[in-house]
Amino acid sequence: MARTPGADYRELSRLWTPAAEQYAHLGRMQVEDERFRENYERIADGLAVYMRDAMAAYARRIR
Fold first, then answer.
1. Cβ–Cβ < 8 Å for 47, 41
2. Whole-number Å distance between alpha carbons of 56 and 58
3. What are 23-53's pLDDT values in tens digits?
4. For the whole model, what pTM was predicted?
5. Which end of the chain, C or N, has fewer beta carbons within 10 A?
6. DSSP per-residue letters across 11-61
């Protein structure tokens, strides 16, 4: 199950704290990289795009 962007960011920050733009870039990878997109799309159609958009919105909040 996909996590919320906030939970995802907090989990990622345990290993590395990405800058807002880096986190937004990770979100773009969910759509642009087929390997990531396929994993999300197996869960639900459109989930990769949703996660990209949600991660971008979260990145704007943490700037």
1. yes
2. 5
3. 999 999 999 999 999 999 999 999 999 999 9
4. 0.82
5. N
6. HHHTT----HHHHHHHHHHHHHSHHHHHHHHHHSTTHHHHHHHHHHHHHHH
